[in-house]
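Consider this record:
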Amino acid sequence: MLTTAILFASGVGIGALGTLIGAGGGWMIVPLLLLGYHFTPQHAVATSLAVVFLNALSGSVAYMVQGRVLYMMGLAFAAATIPGALLGAWLVQLFSSKWFTVLFGGFLLCVALFLHRGQQLLFVQGRGKEVTTNFQSLRSPVMRLGILISFLVGILSSLFGVGGGIIHVPFLIVVLGIPVHAATATSHFILAITSLTGSLVFLRQGQIQLAAAASMGLGVLIGAQGGAFLSTRMRGEPIRRLLAAVLAIFALRLILRFAW
């Protein structure tokens, strides 16, 4: 009973923060299950993706109601993540617990450092609404780059159980120059599709811990709505810096676990 309550409470907090920054929360769930509950990498990733899907689905509905999702970009990038997600679900079966944890920590630390710099490497000109209007054609070099990156995101999402939002948000903000609030909403939309694909693969393999996924899933469904509400009352810069700081903390904790 206590474990269920802790997982539920964790889900509420993870759902709120994950939706607030558009990253789905998998980057928090996997370390929690690895460090706190001693899950194997495969079971941690599988259970995380199931919870991430519920979080992304709940958050996406809220963002769609707010009219913040860039649908053409979201659908194109989501389609590109699907084959990558299938490949990532296969690759994770090859890793031992130690090497998975070290690689996952290093991956999170790199993303945190990249996002903390906050320098936009724009391939388009303009800001805000002007920028978002430049992503209307699949023949655009920027869209093609995004589709390629999304395939790689799909691999990493199922490999590390993060769903892909933790990569898509920095990519949309820093590389493509999408406004933060549109980037988090569109990332969540992509995340729902990507995490569903990976979850179905792991469910077939019997690697999702259903009790843990249900407890955390109920929490994230509630927390996601709170995160979507808070996102309308926070400026983009604090969201970016909050994401970078929390990422770095989790990354260092994972790396230090095997450094001593």
Residues 2-257 form one domain. Residues 119-133 have pLDDT under 50 and may be disordered.
